[in-house]
């Protein structure tokens, strides 16, 4: 007979880790299944070997679009820059173009999320950097914006006592970045939850009514390839915005036909992630790219009101660019070797500034599955998205050239062309809503967070976001996870 637990959580990123802790706190038996390894600071490395980065990340391709997500216990929190922002209230007013109504469920807005944001911030130790610790690259953006009359502010981070080594997005070897492996996950384990790394969930299925209160089964392979089964009263799917729809789609034959299947995988937004590469003028302020934490510490909402995007400074290491480029299906041999590459590397460390945008963009993408059941991406940019991209390009160009710099490319052209247009913030592919005709997960009180037509099947990760947030999403995913966990576990385990 299969192992039985109260709660099985698949995926251990922001959505999964929050659910695991909140279920364990109620004294419930909890098993967390995670495809990636369980790595703490001592296991992580500061190396630009592309193979190392790829061992921690999933790369998903759709044409020329690359989406990179975390693959370890803690999910994206192991790789992330730690920027922890609340979404502005207008983000929750976004109107869905297919229905002409508000995308988010009636009960969710910025104010209602406030309490859950607060819980997540406390758990993650979020704090705002003092100006004295802003890395030089962030200082350059701040000066450039100020020169043109625009504002910016200091970013809040889930990083405590940072040693400013700059390797955040390869995993913090000093355990200063507050990855989920330092808070939600160990606290869940301390209350009895069992985290099983290197366990790849292949399928989910409904159990017959004779098995009640156990509602769903899970089939997974461990690191040795051995097949296992678990039955759960409540099954939480938290594989991220690419992994969750893929897992549901490949389990379709065993899950309720009443689920909103046409919407599983659709409405995927890449959060307006555009990365621009600028060269600072030789005789001006130099960003010294590798100094200070990975993220530039400075964000600007100067263009938010009119254009609905924010600006930030990030650092893309050459090794990451190479890794993503190499992971691309049919990737050609790198062409930029020799002197040209050497020259590029010199500029990279001294004069290159990576300016990222994150904004409210439509759900133009779709996650599907290929013949092996692995996710595939279909991405057809709408005129709205093309206009957004043009807008971000013109804005960044104006800032760079207005300060004597040169815009030399973006993530999809110029020196980084192997990377492809890309995102590390996919959202919305199993969205929350008030109506099963337009969403996958219920946003209605009573069955909040449960998949329509499948009581006891819950989605807590970035896929459940109803629309793009316009800012780095981890804190909102954690806050929504807090809300869904409270609602679901109060219902099933009062
Ligand atoms: C390089 C990088 C930098 C980033 N920086 C920031 C930042 O500074 N601020 C911010 O807010 N966000 C940042 N993000 C984004 C942030 O990490 C994600 O938005 C967040 O992690 C998403 O949370 P999630 O719970 O939806 O999924 P994830 O964190 O992606 O977790 C999903 C987990 O499920 C596992 N999984 C998938 N399929 C299966 C399966 N079949 N069986 C078992 N397990 C499975 C995956 O391995 C993964 O660990 C960054 C991301 C990256 C990659």
SSE topology sketch:
Elements: E1 3-10, H1 14-25, E2 30-33, H2 50-56, E3 57-62, E4 65-70, H3 110-124, E5 127-128, H4 136-147, E6 153-154, E7 156-157, H5 184-190, E8 194-196, E9 200-206, E10 216-221, E11 227-237, H6 240-250, E12 274-279, E13 298-300, H7 304-307, E14 309-314, H8 318-327, H9 338-350, E15 352-359, E16 365-369, E17 375-379, H10 383-401, E18 406-410, E19 421-423, E20 432-433, E21 441-442, E22 450-451, E23 454-459, H11 474-492
Helix pairs in contact: 1-5, 1-11, 2-8, 3-11
The chain binds flavin-adenine dinucleotide (FAD).
Small molecules held by this entry: flavin-adenine dinucleotide
Secondary structural class: alpha/beta
Q: What is the molecular shape? A: globular
* Uncertain segments: none
Q: What's a quick, concise take on this entry?
A:
26% of the residues lie in helices and 22% in strands.
Attribute tags:
globular, FAD/NAD(P)-binding domain, binds flavin-adenine dinucleotide, 494 residues, alpha/beta, 11 helices, 6-stranded antiparallel beta sheet
Model description:
It is built from 11 helices and 23 strands. It is α/β, with parallel strands linked by helices and 494 residues long. It has one domain: FAD/NAD(P)-binding domain (3-Layer(bba) Sandwich), CATH 3.50.50. α1 (14-25) runs parallel beside α11 (474-492). It is globular. The two termini are 27 Å apart. The model has no long low-confidence stretch (mean pLDDT 93). The structure holds flavin-adenine dinucleotide. Residues 10-16, 33-36, 68-72, 75-77, 79-83, 169, 200-201, 238-241, 243, 247, 295, 424-425, 461-462, 472-474, 477 line the site of flavin-adenine dinucleotide.
